[in-house]
Amino acid sequence: MDTAVHPDIEGSLIEALKQGDSTAYKQAVRDYSPGMLAVARFYLDHSSAEEIVQDCWVTVIDAIHKFEGRSGLKTWLHRIVANRCKNKLRSSKREVATDFSEGLEPELAERFNATGRWEVPPKLQFHESADSLMENGALSDCLDKHLSALPETQRSALMLYEAHQHKSEDVCNILDVSASNLRVLLHRARQKIFLMVETFQETGEC
Amino acid sequence: MLMCRDLAEIASDYIDGELSGRQNLSVKMHLMMCKDCRTFIGNLRASTELLQAHSAGHPDEELLRRIDERVSEALKTRRPRDKDDE
Question: Which Pfam families does the entry link to (chain B) (predicted)?
């Protein structure tokens, strides 16, 4: 079950979409497109991904009548995008290049000594809550910059899991990765964000 | 015995509750004894929460506008003609 939208609200939205209500479509486009784009970016370059998301919305107008609610609307939309991306990749015979190598980010791995203890431990404790950290505009900009520098595969996994609150198994289905590879993608992306916040807190620089 | 580096490798699994009972216990034992790893886990968790708070928004307005246009075009062609539209 999707966690982001209350089932009653989602049910009303789906009914309105089935009726072809343009206001409902505007709302749904606003709510769901960022996640759909995150899925598409896992597979495709930026402009192809945007094209796929636009095409998918047109597909949804017809397909919504067949939506039976076995999954949440968000998961259903994300699967449509993923399937379309996979078809596109198949037709162009391209593959997603993904590095699932285990271990730590090199910058973090260097901070342990040969015995596996911290050589350069984390110096500061992030003492503020996420919400108060977010009020820092410079940190928010820095986070944007680092998120856009993440490999697409890591960023998509992170977006679907953290921001769009999909369950692991849904992310694995949508992105076509194994559970263990998803764990690698998530952990590597989180380490990069951890290193970024640490540098920002220590130096005030991005 | 679990070392700091081993713990750092499985830190996300610990945060997400994905470890086996035995692994989870080893992490907890290590954390009881190691202040640096407690700080690391706390900071990694804070980074994760920060991401959740940060990435909820930021739709690309230009893309949304283009999608709205295509959707409203498509809706026009699919709607029954007898439906009153503005």
Answer: zf-HC2
Q: Could you give the CA distance from residue A11 to residue B29 in angstroms, rounded to a whole number?
A: 46
Contact A163 B40 (CB under 8 A): no
The phi and psi torsions of B80 (rounded to 5 degrees) equal -60, 140
Residue A1 within a domain: no
Please indicate, yes or no, whether residues A88 and A111 belong to a single structural domain of this protein: no
Interchain contact, A26 vs B68, CB within 8 Å: yes
Tokens of B84: 């009153």
Tell me: the pLDDT tens digits for A80-136? 999 999 898 887 766 666 666 667 899 999 999 999 999 999 977 776 666 676 677
Out of B51, B63, B68, whose CB is closest to A193?
B51
CATH code, domain with A169: 1.10.10.10
Whether pLDDT at A21 is above 90 = yes
Q: Residue A119 domain-assigned?
A: yes
Any chain A CB within 8 A of the CB of B63? yes
Say what the pLDDT of residue B55 is.
64
Beta bridge partners of A52: none
Question: Which ranges constitute the DSSP H helices of chain A?
Answer: 7-18, 22-43, 46-63, 73-92, 106-109, 130-134, 137-149, 152-158, 168-175, 179-203
Which structural domain range is residue A30 located in?
A: 7-92
Closest CB to B4: pick one of A117, A190, A197. A117
User: What ipTM describes this predicted complex?
Assistant: 0.75
In a domain, A178, yes or no: yes
Structural domain ending residue among the three candidates A92, A124, A141: A92
